[in-house]
Amino acid sequence: MAKKRVRHHVNPMSDRTEISFKGFDNDNPIIVDVGAASGEFISKLIELKTETHNFIIFEIRKPLAKKLEEKFKNKNNVKVFTGDAGRNFESILASSVKKGIKIEEIFINFPDPWFKDRHKKRRFINESFLDNVSAWIQVETVWIFQTDQKELFQETLQLLDEKKISNIRFFDTSPYNTQTKWEAAKVELGDKIYRVKFNIDNIKI
Ligand SMILES: C[S@@+](CC[C@H](N)C(=O)[O-])C[C@H]1O[C@@H](n2cnc3c(N)ncnc32)[C@H](O)[C@@H]1O
Predict the structure, then answer these.
(1) Range of the domain at 152
(2) 200 in a domain, yes or no?
(3) Angle at 138 between CA 134 and CA 143, to 5 degrees
(4) CATH of the domain at 152
(5) Is residue 92 part of a domain?
(6) What angle do CA 141, 69, 137 make, to 5 degrees?
């Protein structure tokens, strides 16, 4: 009998790797993809903006991250980081922010939802993450959050509301007219996609 493939959920909290990054050797703005998986979405952006932008890609699953590293190994404007994006966000991005480099866009595309109450703090956008990041991230940085999970979306909006993040824009179509791999699969199934952009302008801690 064929063995059933089981996809185990990665617990980001169990990966305690600490990584830091001094920044790129040019002043171009940075675009970030959190949880890129096999990287179809960010590849399109890299293709579109390679002359003008730098790219930071986070992926916690080592085999996927390894493939992304291989894919972009000849591009000095692309850095792939293997590990928990939440844990390493400040140590990777804050030095560029300090140098005045613009973090232009941060994509959080279809993150793992972590439904159980006790797991919610593992979500990338969680209360302590927002409190921490608001102390150093630029107000101009546009955060783009997309998900097919209604509950995750509603709870994330509620958190943004509690934190008094006011600059919230809902939108309907794929950024850069580019579906992510996960999005394409969900759209094919007829699922609804929930999308919001925001800036971290006024955090209430
Ligand atoms: C549902 S997939 C979506 C992948 C891709 N963004 C897309 O839309 O096709 C979520 C991805 O995020 C990665 N991931 C989850 N938590 C992460 C974390 N804390 N840091 C970095 N990557 C993470 C997972 O390994 C997985 O590849």
Answers:
(1) 23-179
(2) no
(3) 80
(4) 3.40.50.150
(5) yes
(6) 15
Q: Give pLDDT < 70 ranges for the chain.
A: 1-13, 202, 204-205
Q: Is the distance from the beta carbon of residue 148 to the nearest atom of ligand 1 less than 6 Å?
A: no
User: How many A from CA of 202 to the centre of ligand 1?
Assistant: 27
Q: Ligand 1: which atom is nearest the Cα of residue 111?
A: 10
Q: How far is the CA of 113 from the centre of ligand 1 (A)?
A: 10
Give the pLDDT score at 166.
83
42 lines ligand 1 (CB under 6 A): no
Query: pTM here?
Result: 0.94
Each residue of 20-67: pLDDT tens digit?
A: 999 999 999 999 999 999 999 999 999 999 999 999 999 999 999 999
Q: What is the dihedral of CA 179, 157, 37, 19, to 10 degrees?
A: 140
Task: Report the alpha-carbon angle 139-200-136, nearest 5.
Answer: 65
